[in-house]
Amino acid sequence: MASNAVENGKKLAAYKAVDEYISANHKVVGIGSGSTVVYAVERILQRPELKNIVYVPTSFQSKNLIIDGGLTLGSTEQFSEIDVTIDGADEVDEQLNAIKGGGACQFQEKVVAELAKKFVIIADYRKKSTKLGTQWTKGVPIEVVPMAYKGVMKAIESKLSWKPEKVTLRMAVNKAGPVVTDNGNFVVDAHFGGIDDPKALLKELKLLTGVYEVGLFCNMAEIAYFGEEDGSVSTLKK
């Protein structure tokens, strides 16, 4: 079954990344968000020598993973330098640019990734693509201040060099109304099709008034691990 191959791929990628990038001499490690990161924490807990590290979360979810695992919880207020951050991604291109924010945590994920000396992506084989916006078609997640969301959506549709195929306010599943991030903001998903220049698009989106953060991670990752369908793990490195 594909779902078994996907879950196995996530686990393999996460385990290999932890084994190769987290060691006992690290002091502070960033823990990303999402389903693949669950396996990264699982692997950390299997290695007793990693128990003395301080772990900095990127979301409510990863904070709970750290606490429930009995690991030491830290914050970006305490640590302005992180040894390595491990996080998932919704899509990764051949230049290691990534779309993140499918779980609406892109702001904190970017803060923790930028503080890290090394940023490592873990994902299953479905997340690999030659160009962002081709595999992940739900759109670039854009965190927006609530009072500005309509203006931002209008600006995305009319003021950018890119013409979006679709711009939507992300709605909650078990709540009447929009998704609200850990920061109290809304998320707008803008699908542009294949993105030739993610960095340029990121810059234009960030300049829109009301935009809090954009789920385009450009020139940040050192390496990406992909759990393949056949049980192997491939890597893409700078």
From TrEMBL:
Pathway(s) the chain acts in: Carbohydrate degradation; pentose phosphate pathway; D-ribose 5-phosphate from D-ribulose 5-phosphate (non-oxidative stage): step 1/1
Keyword Cell division: no
Protein EC: 5.3.1.6
Keywords: Isomerase
Pfam families per UniProt: Rib_5-P_isom_A
Reaction(s) catalysed by this chain's protein: aldehydo-D-ribose 5-phosphate = D-ribulose 5-phosphate
A GO biological-process term: D-ribose metabolic process
SUPFAM superfamilies the record matches: D-ribose-5-phosphate isomerase (RpiA), lid domain, NagB/RpiA/CoA transferase-like
GO cellular component: cytoplasm
GO MF annotations, alphabetized: ribose-5-phosphate isomerase activity
PANTHER family recorded: RIBOSE-5-PHOSPHATE ISOMERASE
UniProt-listed HAMAP family: Rib_5P_isom_A (MF_00170)
Family per record: Belongs to the ribose 5-phosphate isomerase family.
Protein name: Ribose-5-phosphate isomerase
